[in-house]
Specification:
Strand content: 15-25%
CATH topology of the largest domain: Rossmann fold
CATH superfamily of the largest domain: Nitrogenase molybdenum iron protein domain
Radius of gyration: 18 Å
Strand order of the largest sheet: 3-2-1-4-5
Number of domains: 2
CATH class of the largest domain: Alpha Beta
Number of strands: 11
Helix content: 25-40%
Number of helices: 9
C-alpha cells in the first residue's frame, strides 16, 4: 500500500495502523507486540524513544498519545522536523474519534470495517445488571489505582462497574493498602497490564474481596481489540 511512512509510539495505535493501514508502518516501540510478528524497526520504549532512530526512518507521520508518551520526547521529535499526531483517549467515544483521525486523516486510508464493528459491538452491549463498586489497581509497590477520567474507567462503567475512586482528583492516585481495603469495594478488578496481576499476585492483598482477572489489552487498548472487548470483559467480570 502506498501512503505516508508511519512510526507509532503507542502499542494500541501500532496494532490499529498495522491492521487498518497495512504496509505504512515503518517503526514502533519495543512494547508494540501486536500484531504478532510485526516486522518493523524498533525505536525504544514509549517513555524513552530513540529520537535519532525515529528521525532516521524518515517517517511522514509519528503517532503518539498524551498519556503514553512524554511531552519532552514529542517536542524533541518535532524539533527534527517530524510531524507528530498526538491523540487523547479518555473515553470510548474519544477512542473512535481518534482512531478515525489517525487512520483516515493521518494515514489517508478508507475507514476500516473493524472500527464500525467495534462501535456496533459497544452500542449493542446488553444492559448491565446491578452496578458493582469495584477497586481497580493498575500497579503495586506502590499501590496505584484507576482514578477519574480514564478510558478503562469508561469501559467498566458501560459494563455496570462503578470505580470506587472514579471521583478522585488524580487519574492514577497512589493509595495506601490499608485505605484501599476500607474503600467499600464489592469487587476487585485486576488487569494484567501495565502491572501483570495474576491469581497469585494481587488478590491475596484483599482477603475476602471477590477478584476478577481481566485482559489488560481489552480494557486499556483502543484498536481492533475493541471489537471483542465487550464479550471478553463481560465474561471476566461475571
Amino acid at each position: 500500500m502506498s501512503g505516508p511512512r508511519v512510526v507509532s509510539l503507542v502499542p494500541s495505535l501500532t496494532e490499529a495502523v498495522a491492521v487498518g493501514a497495512p504496509g505504512l508502518l515503518v517503526g514502533a516501540t519495543d512494547w508494540c507486540v501486536h500484531p504478532a510478528g510485526l516486522g518493523v524497526a524498533r525505536i525504544g520504549g514509549t517513555k524513552n524513544p530513540d529520537v535519532a532512530a525515529v528521525a532516521a526512518l524518515r517517517p511522514d507521520l509519528v503517532v503518539a498519545n498524551e498519556e503514553e508518551n512524554r511531552a519532552q520526547d514529542l517536542d524533541a521529535l518535532r524539533a527534527t522536523g517530524l510531524t507528530v499526531l498526538v491523540t487523547e483517549v479518555r473515553t470510548l467515544e474519544q477512542a473512535f474519534t481518534e482512531l478515525a483521525r489517525v487512520l483516515v486523516d493521518g494515514c489517508g486510508v478508507a475507514r476500516p470495517r473493524w472500527l464500525d464493528e467495534a462501535r456496533h459491538a459497544w452500542v449493542e452491549l446488553p444492559p448491565p445488571g446491578p452496578r458493582r463498586r469495584a477497586l481497580v489497581p493498575v500497579w503495586r509497590r506502590p499501590w496505584m489505582v484507576l482514578g477519574r477520567d480514564t478510558f478503562a474507567g469508561d469501559l467498566l462503567a458501560r459494563l455496570g462497574v462503578e470505580n470506587v475512586y472514579g471521583g478522585h482528583p488524580e487519574r492514577y492516585p497512589r493509595i495506601p493498602l490499608a485505605e484501599l481495603r476500607e474503600a467499600g469495594a464489592e469487587l476487585l478488578v485486576l488487569p494484567d497490564e501495565p502491572y501483570r496481576f495474576t491469581a497469585d499476585d494481587g488478590p491475596e492483598a484483599f482477603p475476602g474481596l471477590p477478584a476478577a482477572l481481566v485482559d489488560g489489552r481489552h480494557l486499556t487498548w483502543y484498536g481492533p481489540s475493541l471489537v471483542r472487548a465487550p464479550g471478553v470483559l463481560r465474561a471476566a467480570l461475571r
